[in-house]
Specification:
This protein is of the alpha/beta class. Helices cover 33% and strands 17% of the residues. The structure holds zinc ion.
Length: 259
């Protein structure tokens, strides 16, 4: 295989993909899904667009194996977070390459992953690699704001996804050793989640010209200050403990004790 050529091809696809604005909200992932579908079509890999709500497109492509094993699912998301345009030195939706880096909203999270996974299917197909399992490629909508029109919807409505024995998604990594071989596979089994509070303060009303300590705004400010001063207690969860105790022997002696 001509890897340089494949890298060029993937880079070009990523630039084009970044040029499709899929900022969520509103998402408009359908345009990204159509873009991916066109490429899968040109490679004769069957795929379908799933659109649970107008504009919220998901794409499922399937590379068939002989069915001896359960499918492998590769997942990525089409939507990206908003941009603060004046903080960017380049157009975030132009797919600019500068000094060897590709800049753009979604270049890391998560359009690059979508392109890499798509290229993996394309290469397997072009090289006619015999597969023991189906490979399911799922590009989802709505990852950045909760997944209702993306992964959640897909898991409820697309039965083949639940057949998958493994799923590869953003967040975990395959760490390579110096020789380039896989040293370990890092998996996610839990995440910090959003914890939102609504604070309500009661007090005596009055006029701003006559401040007094029973003002609800004053109480709110004190309460918020207390929140910022709160120190999270250390709590080593069992899986975290296991991770570090298994990692420790692999570390150089000087850092081992920290693990
Ligand atoms: Zn992401």
């Amino acid at each position: 295989m001509d890897w340089d050529k494949l890298v060029d091809e993937a880079t070009h696809y990523l630039q084009e993909y970044i040029r499709i604005n899929t900022v969520n909200p509103p998402g408009n992932e359908i345009e990204g899904a159509k873009f991916l579908k066109k490429i899968f079509d040109s490679e004769s890999i069957p795929s379908e667009i799933i659109e649970p709500l107008p504009g919220r497109g998901n794409l499922l492509a399937v590379l068939k194996g002989n069915g001896k094993k359960k499918p492998l699912l590769v997942v990525n998301h089409i939507d990206v977070v908003p941009v603060e345009r004046d903080r960017w030195s380049v157009d975030p939706f132009a797919g600019v390459i500068q000094n060897g880096y590709l800049y753009g909203r979604g270049a890391i999270d998560d359009k690059s992953m979508g392109i890499v996974e798509m290229m993996a299917l394309i290469i397997l197909k072009r090289e006619r690699v015999p597969l023991k399992r189906d490979i399911l490629f799922l590009a989802t909508a709505d990852e950045e704001t909760g997944g209702n029109w993306g992964i959640r919807w897909a898991l409820e409505h697309v039965p083949s996804l639940k057949e998958a024995e493994y799923a590869l998604n953003e967040g975990g990594y395959v760490i390579l050793s110096e020789s380039g071989a896989a040293d370990r596979y890092e998996i996610s089994i839990g995440q910090k989640i959003v914890f939102q509070l609504r604070l309500k303060a009661r007090g005596t009303s009055g006029h701003a010209s006559m401040p007094h300590p029973d003002n609800p705004n004053v109480k709110l400010i004190h309460a918020l200050e207390a929140v910022t001063k709160w120190e999270t207690p250390y709590q080593i969860l069992p899986m975290v403990k296991e991770y570090f105790s298994k990692m420790a022997p692999k570390q150089p002696p000087e850092v081992r004790k920290f693990f």
